[in-house]
């Protein structure tokens, strides 16, 4: 079984902030989960480097566009390394390979009659890199970002988007293509208003992929960027890889780029006779002070601060646990700290410490041998089933809630069994809790991989053992000696 997952390609005009890390951490969690299930996973991410917006940003910084792109794409890669993003490929739209694919697709579509030459007269928002309709033509502002925009009038190549109107309505209504479900109507209403053909070249934007048939034009940045999902896995140059992974199983995007992904993207694929992605899931926004977190709003929350202050895993954990994926949420340090202290320090960290203390004091660092309490086997199976369903449904916070039932259960179990007392049957309790924690490490690995590895080391478990989901069904093997201990989560005031 294969699993192909993608994130959007991030514009290189801004350094990674909380919004970008959100999509990428979520994709990483899914990629890790499916690898643990034994799937052949391909996880694609990267940077979007062409177009007027990037060109203007580079000029502001006194750089050439490619200098800016080289610099910022490296910053993205470094950030992904810091928070342990296990992507299989990081694609840049300025790569030769990608550019060749875009040119070939353009040429194919032209030859197939899916493109035609015409005149575009209308408004264009550089910030959104989008052709937009405006209400008041005397004071034109972008309906999405509300910035001032201007009218352009130029000859252009058009893609026959309008001819896909009915088929798109049908797909949106009757398949899993648009996720979550409550977003369907929004997309549908937009399609029902009527789709116009889409201008896919620019006449006066030099920073872009040149049209293969007419060098006066560069290819519209969204048309270029969307094709990365094809070029990233070998379309038109590595048919074997392409055949193996196409179509995407899940594509993650933010709700602001739904129209591009839920309308233009499938229409392009239909015109190429390619199967559509199974699901394109739009998540909500992180908000700060009532506004979307973004460079232009000046309310950036730096992932670095949280990573340095709390560690990469608490940051990943907060993003996935705090807000149901799909809805908007307020990002504040106060909420972060609360979540960190209660879930990671009190519940999870304490459980581990208590157990390691007992093994050290009562059993000289060796996990006692014997039978595991059936109750803990049963709850492990139950939690496994429920959290897998939630994660497959792309409900990260609910998946963690399910896993937390086991954390809470094990803490309570220790309280009730009081294995620290002289008289207690502490062997069975410790073995059972040890097995329960081992299962927690398996279940939590997609969310907080580094922590699970560290904890596995402390517990004397093999890392490989926790990287396979099905292993929760078997008992750890052999006589286990616990390893060196360290505090992973420090309480924050
Ligand atoms: N380059 C395009 C995508 C091309 S995909 C073929 C783009 N780039 S972006 O850098 O502006 O944004 C990328 C993603 O980050 C979007 O999915 C967007 O929703 C997400 N986020 C940016 N700010 C965000 C928040 N404040 N909160 C959550 N995610 C948001 O669009």
Descriptive labels:
15 strands, binds 5'-O-[(L-methionyl)-sulphamoyl]adenosine, single chain, Isoleucyl-tRNA Synthetase, Domain 1, four-stranded antiparallel β-sheet, six-stranded parallel β-sheet, about 500 residues, alpha/beta
Give the distance, in angstroms, between the N- and C-terminal Cα atoms: 46 Å
Enter the CATH topology name of the domain at 333-473: Isoleucyl-tRNA Synthetase, Domain 1
Level-2 CATH architecture of the domain at 333-473 = Orthogonal Bundle
The major pleated sheet works out as:
6 strands, parallel
Structural class of the helices, strands and pairings?
alpha/beta
What order do the strands of the largest sheet run in, or round the barrel if closed?
3-2-1-11-12-7
Enumerate how many helices there are, as a single number. 18
Query: Which outline best applies?
Result: elongated
Beta-strand content: 5-15%
Bound molecules: 5'-O-[(L-methionyl)-sulphamoyl]adenosine
Q: What radius of gyration results from the CA coordinates?
A: 26 Å
How many β strands by DSSP? 15
Give unreliable regions as ranges: none
- The named CATH superfamily of the domain at 333-473: Isoleucyl-tRNA Synthetase, Domain 1
Question: Helical proportion?
Answer: 40-55%
By CATH reckoning, the class of the domain at 333-473 would read Mainly Alpha
Q: Average pLDDT across residues?
A: 95
């Amino acid at each position: 079984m294969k699993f192909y997952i993608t994130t959007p390609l991030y514009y290189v005009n801004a350094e990674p902030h909380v919004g970008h890390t959100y999509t990428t951490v979520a994709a990483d969690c899914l990629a890790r989960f499916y690898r643990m299930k034994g799937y052949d996973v391909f996880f694609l991410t990267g940077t979007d480097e062409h177009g007027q917006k990037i060109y203007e940003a580079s000029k502001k910084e006194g750089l050439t566009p490619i200098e800016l792109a080289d610099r910022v794409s490296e910053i993205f890669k470094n950030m992904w390394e810091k928070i342990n993003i296990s992507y299989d490929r990081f694609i840049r739209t300025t790569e030769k390979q990608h550019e060749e694919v875009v040119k070939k697709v353009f040429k194919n579509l032209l030859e197939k009659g899916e493109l035609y030459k015409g005149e575009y007269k209308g408004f264009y928002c550089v910030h959104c890199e989008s052709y937009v309709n405006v209400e008041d033509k005397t004071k034109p502002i972008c309906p999405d970002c509300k910035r001032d925009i201007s009218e352009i009038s130029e000859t252009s190549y058009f893609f026959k988007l309008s001819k896909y109107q009915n088929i798109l309505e049908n797909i949106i209504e009757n398949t899993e293509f648009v996720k979550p479900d409550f977003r369907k109507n929004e997309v549908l209403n937009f399609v029902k208003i009527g789709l116009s053909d889409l201008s896919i070249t620019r006449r006066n934007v030099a920073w872009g992929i040149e049209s293969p048939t007419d060098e006066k034009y560069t290819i519209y940045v969204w048309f270029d960027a969307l094709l990365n999902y094809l070029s990233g896995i070998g379309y038109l140059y590595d048919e074997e890889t392409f055949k193996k992974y196409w179509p995407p199983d899940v594509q993650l995007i933010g709700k602001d780029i739904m129209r591009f992904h839920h309308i233009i993207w499938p229409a392009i694929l239909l015109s190429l006779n390619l199967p559509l992605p199974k699901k394109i899931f739009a998540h909500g926004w992180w908000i700060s002070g009532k506004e979307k977190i973004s460079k232009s709003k000046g309310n950036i929350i730096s992932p670095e601060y949280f990573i340095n202050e709390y560690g990469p895993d608490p940051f990943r954990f907060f993003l996935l646990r705090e807000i149901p994926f799909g809805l908007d949420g307020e990002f504040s340090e106060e909420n972060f700290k609360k979540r960190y202290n209660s879930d990671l320090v009190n519940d999870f960290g304490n459980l581990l410490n208590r157990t390691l203390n007992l093994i050290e004091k009562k059993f000289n660092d060796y996990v006692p041998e014997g039978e595991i309490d059936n109750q803990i086997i049963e709850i492990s199976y139950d939690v496994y089933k429920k959290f897998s369903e939630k994660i497959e449904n792309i409900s990260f916070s609910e998946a963690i809630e399910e896993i937390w039932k086991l954390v809470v259960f094990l803490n309570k179990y220790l309280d009730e069994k009081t294995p620290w007392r002289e008289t207690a049957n502490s062997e069975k309790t410790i073995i059972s809790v040890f097995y329960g924690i081992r299962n927690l490490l398996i279940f939590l690995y997609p969310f907080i991989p580094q922590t699970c590895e560290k904890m596995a080391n402390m517990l004397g478990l093999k890392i490989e053992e926790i990287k396979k989901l099905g292993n929760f069904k078997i008992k750890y093997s052999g006589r286990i000696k616990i390893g060196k201990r360290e505090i992973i989560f420090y309480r924050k005031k």
